[in-house]
């Protein structure tokens, strides 16, 4: 049985494909997840995340731009953007604890981002999380 970590990893890959122009990814996502042995509750979890990020794709980029100190969101790599969008979506729209979300995003950045990605993703998502806590 797949874990939520594996589901998030698959979602980041699907978001990367979406960002690179595969706008019909939602139609193929269930089969792609099943091929990675992500099924049942974990597939529902993954599809919910994917759908939520895609529905708010541009607005998540705008939100994240506020927390980049010396970078523009448009200058980041697609993989880093995908990880950040997923993390931001979870922080803003799910009940999952922020430390879990941030840790998962850092681990994804270590696997798929460049050498500076884990530090950047940690800083941006932590700043977003702190801002959300202040609003609550």
Automatic annotation (TrEMBL):
It comes from the Bacteria. GO terms for cellular component: cytosol. One of its GO terms (biological process) is transcription antitermination. Involved in transcription antitermination. Required for transcription of ribosomal RNA (rRNA) genes. Binds specifically to the boxA antiterminator sequence of the ribosomal RNA (rrn) operons. Belongs to the NusB family. NCBIfam families: nusB (TIGR01951). GO terms for molecular function: RNA binding. The gene is nusB. InterPro entries: NusB-like_sf, NusB_fam, NusB_RsmB_TIM44. Residues 6-130 form the NusB/RsmB/TIM44 domain. The keyword tRNA processing does not apply. The keyword Transcription regulation applies. This is Transcription antitermination protein NusB. Keywords: RNA-binding, Transcription, Transcription antitermination, Transcription regulation.
């Amino acid at each position: 049985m797949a874990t939520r970590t594996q589901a998030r990893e698959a979602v980041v890959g699907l978001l990367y494909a979406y960002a690179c122009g595969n706008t019909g990814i939602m139609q193929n996502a269930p089969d792609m997840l099943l091929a990675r042995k992500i099924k049942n509750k974990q597939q529902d979890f993954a599809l919910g995340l994917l759908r939520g990020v895609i529905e708010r794709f541009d607005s998540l980029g705008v939100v994240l731009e506020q927390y980049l100190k010396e970078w523009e969101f448009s200058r980041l790599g697609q993989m880093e953007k995908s990880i950040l969008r997923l993390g931001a979506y979870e922080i803003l729209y799910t009940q999952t604890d922020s430390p879990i979300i941030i840790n998962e995003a850092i681990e994804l950045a270590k696997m798929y981002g460049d050498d500076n990605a884990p530090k950047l993703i940690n800083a941006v998502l932590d700043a977003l999380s702190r801002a959300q806590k202040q609003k609550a």
